[in-house]
Structures are given as structure tokens and as C-alpha cells.
């Protein structure tokens, strides 16, 4: 997540978020915890708060504005 600012294109930034999400799901699976959205979202929030990536709000707005909607909705880039 920290390197999201090193990417210029919306699809690259989206890929960074997707990779982070996949890593979170992998960690949940390894811990034996259920891997539903109910478990994922609190962990994602925790990761964002602890990682404190710079300009995350601007990056999310940039992705929302310029990435293909189908890629955003599919969770893949």
C-alpha cells in the first residue's frame, strides 16, 4: 500500500489495492479464520490505519474517477 504513490496510472494503483486485498485474504485463510467480507473489512481498515499510506484518499478518488468501472467492481485490475 505504501508504494501506491509510485504508480501513475489508475490501473496500476488499483492493482496495488488488489494485491493488498489478496494478501489479507491469504493471511485470513492461513489463520484458519473464515474469509468472508465480515472478517475482511475490519482487517483492511486495520491495515490502512496502521500502514497510514500517504494520500490514500486522493488515490482512491483517482482510481474511482479513471479506472474502468468493470475492473473496480470485479476486484481485479
Automatic annotation (TrEMBL):
One molecular function GO term is:
guanyl-nucleotide exchange factor activity
Q: Which InterPro entries match?
A: VPS9, Vps9-like, VPS9_dom_sf
Organism this protein belongs to? Teladorsagia circumcincta
UniProt name for this protein: Vacuolar sorting protein 9 domain protein
Note the PROSITE patterns from the entry.
Answer: VPS9 (PS51205)
- Gene3D superfamilies linked: VPS9 domain
Give a GO biological-process term.
Answer: vesicle-mediated transport
Which parts pass through the membrane? none
- GO cellular component terms given for this protein: cytosol; endocytic vesicle
User: Which residue intervals define the domain VPS9 in the entry?
Assistant: 1-77
